[in-house]
């Protein structure tokens, strides 16, 4: 297997990790056929041999841009936290492991945004009351809603951002969330 780098999250993909988070994909990677970054979920076209992370010029960002990216960090941490909790709560083993994998992908998205905006600390969000999600169906429905919200967020706010490569990253991550809608919507 050729060693590749994901130019969105910066992780190196090799034969030890290509299958990480496999439960978060409709078609998982195999050694012969890599289709996604196992860490952030982006498609094969962003996995490049000796690839360098997408560069952006932070000087082009104004206060509003930074606010949008800061909110994107919070949105992804919010969803990562939800999936972590949902994975503890789910009864079905497959649903459990899917939530766990989704959690780690959403946290990676938060990490990507943090890096873009130069944010060091992880935002501490208020603890949520999850007690109303007392079945796997309820957890899946809540997950699907959150993914739809994330896609809408990226679509709406990418138009306001003044740096084209960051707009591209918003687009690419939004496509990952679109697959999550499909995964959680069944
Ligand atoms: Zn990646």
From TrEMBL:
UniProt xrefs under Pfam families: Ferritin_2
Name of the molecule in the record: Metal-iron-binding protein
InterPro entries with a match to the protein in the record: Ferritin-like, Ferritin-like_SF
CDD domains in the record: Ferritin_like_AB (cd01045)
Organism of derivation: Clostridium kluyveri (strain ATCC 8527 / DSM 555 / NBRC 12016 / NCIMB 10680 / K1)
């Amino acid at each position: 297997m050729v060693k590749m780098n994901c130019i969105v999250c910066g992780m190196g993909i090799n034969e030890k990790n290509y299958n990480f988070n496999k439960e978060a994909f409709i078609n998982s990677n195999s050694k012969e056929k890599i289709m996604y970054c196992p860490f952030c979920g982006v498609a094969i076209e962003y996995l490049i041999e000796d690839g360098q992370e997408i560069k952006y010029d932070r000087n082009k960002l104004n206060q509003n841009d930074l606010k949008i990216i800061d909110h994107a960090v919070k949105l992804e941490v919010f969803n990562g936290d939800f999936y972590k909790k949902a994975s503890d709560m789910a009864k079905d083993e497959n649903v459990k492991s899917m939530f766990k994998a989704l959690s780690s992908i959403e946290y990676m998205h938060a990490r990507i945004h943090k890096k873009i905006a130069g944010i060091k600390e992880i935002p501490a969000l208020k603890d949520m009351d999850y007690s109303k999600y007392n079945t796997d169906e309820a957890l899946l429905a809540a997950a699907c809603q959150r993914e739809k919200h994330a896609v809408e967020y990226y679509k709406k706010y990418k138009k306001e951002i003044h740096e084209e490569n960051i707009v591209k990253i918003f687009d690419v991550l939004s496509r990952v969330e679109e697959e999550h809608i499909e995964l959680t919507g069944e």
